[in-house]
Amino acid sequence: QVQLVESGGGLVQAGGSLRLSCTASRGTLSDYAAAWFRQAPGKAREFVASISRSGGSPDYADSVKGRSTIFRDNAANAVFLQMHSLKPEGTAVYYCAAAMAGALSCGTEYDYWGQGTQVTVST
User: Fold this and answer.
1) What pLDDT does 104 receive?
2) C-beta separation of 77 from 67 below 8 A
3) Average pLDDT of the residues of the chain
4) Contact (Cβ atoms closer than 8 angstroms) between residue 78 and residue 66
5) Residue 101 or 116, more confident
6) SS3 content of the chain, % helix, strand, coil (to 5)
7) CA–CA separation, 76 and 34 (whole Å)
8) Residues 75 and 6: beta-carbon distance below 8 Å
9) 61: which residues sit within 8 A by CB, 6+ positions away?
10) Do 16 and 78 contact (CB within 8 A), yes or no?
11) Which of 3, 48, 97, 103 could be stapled to 26 by a disulfide with Cβ–Cβ 3.0 to 4.6 Å?
12) Can you tell me whether residue 19 is helix, strand or coil?
């Protein structure tokens, strides 16, 4: 079992950058594939990026591809999402998730979720 805590969200102007962090307050995050999802007000949760246990095979949603990088530091028990060139449509609560099954884009495959961190991109 793993307990996830996100941080790094905030208010940023369009075109700016943010780095989100996900750490495990309990358990070993390196035992799991990990991903970031987001949910904007009034919209369904959507996949952002995923990464395997070893840090390979990163996968991205088309909406963030080329502007975001997911990476992990297993020694630090953490996963990160570096976002550049942020757009107002990126405003959402961003969630970290962990899966035993592997790095997938479907949220239902993930076993553990953090509480989320708010990202607001202003025009």
Assistant:
1) 87
2) no
3) 96
4) no
5) 116
6) 10, 50, 40
7) 14
8) no
9) 46, 47, 48, 49, 105
10) no
11) 3
12) strand
